[in-house]
Design goal:
Strand content: 15-25%
Order of helices and strands: EHEHEHEHEHEHEHEEEH
Number of helices: 8
Strand order of the largest sheet: 7-6-5-4-3-2-1-8
Helix content: 25-40%
Structural class: alpha/beta
Oligomer: single chain
Mean pLDDT: 94
Shape: globular
Low-confidence stretches: none
Radius of gyration: 17 Å
Number of strands: 10
Largest sheet: 8 strands, parallel
Length: about 240
């Protein structure tokens, strides 16, 4: 099953058109994904009421070590997103020494309204020597999924660690993500044994001012044909 990460409405529409059943709703994918606005969620739910939407919980870019004030912000965001129909949350927190922050993860679990929780790629900057212990810890904290590149820059480079996580997982779903595309997805899924995977399925576009004189830079937008083909490949591994 493909989960598509999106940070704009056109990408949401393309993901749905291509057959995606679940999206990770973010702002600022260029920064690795931040918490989306409530307005964004409401528009997605209004236009695609049957789409499963997991919302990123990340109040800023940078590391995943959060202060109490930042956690207060995250919990406030959860309350508002919950009230507007979100289907799950994506969150990860670490301590200063790059261990899983059990206290902050417990807070998020307590405020999740029993919705599914994904521990995101914060795990990819933890110590590889305690990888299997961390998988067990995240599962014990009540998370349902782990989104990971296998502690490497991309899921393709981290396939060996992802396979190890998949093998040691019990009731938690391991979701490969980062750099997954049509060229490598089949190899990644067959090597890791994972059933779900995560991709932006995007292409670069250029947004110009109406008169064409101003270049606002390249923007990544989800492509429905890429989604459609990724979904087709993924169905072989269900």
């Amino acid at each position: 099953m493909l989960e598509v990460c999106v940070d704009n409405l056109s990408s949401v529409n393309a993901a749905v058109e291509g057959g995606a059943q679940r999206i990770e709703l973010c702002s600022a994918l260029s920064e690795g994904g931040l918490t989306p606005s409530v307005g964004f969620l409401k528009m997605v739910k209004r236009t695609h009421p049957n789409l499963t939407v997991f919302a990123m919980l990340r109040p800023r870019c940078g590391n995943f070590v959060y202060s109490q004030l930042e956690m207060d912000c995250i919990l406030e965001d959860m309350t508002e997103l919950n009230a507007n129909g979100v289907d799950g949350f994506v969150f990860g927190a670490l301590t200063d020494d790059r261990k899983i922050d059990e206290d902050h993860c417990t807070l998020v679990k307590q405020h999740s309204n029993a919705l599914p929780l994904t521990f995101h790629r914060a795990i990819d900057i933890t110590d590889t020597t305690v990888l299997t212990e961390n998988v067990a810890k995240i599962e014990r904290l009540g998370f349902n999924r782990i989104l990971t590149s296998g502690l490497q820059r991309t899921a393709e480079l981290g396939m060996e660690n992802i396979a190890k996580m998949q093998q040691c997982s019990k009731n938690i779903i391991v979701v490969p993500g980062a750099g997954i595309n049509l060229k490598n997805v089949e190899t990644i899924l067959s090597t890791t044994g994972c059933k779900e995977f995560h991709s932006s399925a995007s292409i670069k576009t250029i947004d110009d001012a109406p008169d064409g004189d101003i270049d606002f830079g390249k923007i990544m937008r989800t492509d429905s044909d890429i989604v459609r083909n990724l979904v087709k490949i993924g169905q072989q591994f269900l």
